Amino acid sequence: MKRIIPLLTIFVLILYFQQPATAQNSNMILALEDGHEMKIDGTSNVRDWEADVKTINARFTIEKFDLSDLTTLTPDHFKFLNITIPVKDIESDSGRLTKNMQGYLKKDEHPVITFSLNNVDSLSVENDRVNITASGVINAAGQDHTATLNLTGTVTDSGKLTFTGNQKLLMTDFGIKPPTALLGTIKAEDEVSIIYSLTFSQQ
After folding, report:
1. E strands present in the chain
2. Is residue 118 part of a domain?
3. Considering Cα of 169, then 116, then 150, then 88, what sign does the dihedral take?
4. Domain hosting residue 183, numbered range
5. Do 58 and 196 meet the contact criterion of CB atoms below 8 Å apart?
6. Residues near 162 by Cβ (< 8 Å), separated by ≥ 6?
7. Most buried residue among 19, 39, 56, 99 by CB atoms closer than 10 A?
8. CA 110, CA 88: separation in Å to the nearest integer?
9. What angle do CA 63, 155, 72 make, to 5 degrees?
10. pLDDT of residue 40
């Protein structure tokens, strides 16, 4: 009897310590692939303008699902997403515009823009793509703004996930006054568009 009790104890401990590992193995950690695309489009009463986001860092965890069948994907599969963008790597084809933009974003005081996923509110599958509505917090120029995102997801034959979208934001959401020039004769519009295509693969 004395030998049975220690054996039972060992068996219970093995089961206990296996549970977290099983839960952990049910998630996929995804890495952002090179070749990502993101740009900022804006306009003024004179002309349109745009800037490219050269560097994006991302941490993305999703619960495993059948990559060959998007109908198996649910909002609960999305566990964690955090995106970080260095302000210094937002550039336009105009050095003056680049400098001004980075200045409005307060590059020295707040060197990064971040996005943190709060929740995937809904998703629907249409043919070979999934339409997603999600909410999250964007921090830019030191201010938080909760945004609703509408994006599209697709899966490649090699099992990579690509998300595309066109997110409308207002400069004033982040305490940024739309720039003016030449005594106010040139006025930037408050609204900008963040257009992106991000592909993730399993690590």
Report:
1. 27-32, 37-43, 48-53, 57-63, 78-86, 90-91, 112-126, 129-140, 143-155, 161-170, 180-181, 186-187, 191-202
2. yes
3. positive
4. 27-202
5. no
6. 153, 154, 155, 156, 197, 198, 199, 200
7. 56
8. 10
9. 45
10. 97
What 3-state class would DSSP assign to 11? Answer: helix
pTM of the model: 0.84
Cα–Cα distance between 153 and 26 in angstroms, integer?
A: 21
Percentage of the chain lying above the pLDDT 90 cut: 71
The band of 11, judged by pLDDT with boundaries at 50, 70 and 90, is: very low
* Alpha-carbon gap, residue 17 to 139, rounded angstroms: 38
In a domain, 20, yes or no: no
Domain contains 14? no
Report the CATH number at residue 65: 2.40.128.110
Note the pLDDT tens digit of each residue in 68-106: 889 999 999 999 999 999 999 999 999 988 999 999 999
Instruction: Please state, in angstroms and rounded to a whole number, the distance separating the CA atoms of residues 88 and 54.
Output: 9
Cβ distance 187 to 178 under 8 Å?
yes
The answer to whether residue 75 sits within a structural domain is yes
CA 203 – CA 31 distance, rounded (Å): 6
d(CA 156, CA 63): 18
Contact of 135 with 100, CB cutoff 8 Å: no
> How many folded domains does the chain comprise?
1
Residue 83: HSE in the Cβ half-sphere, 13 Å Cα cutoff: 21
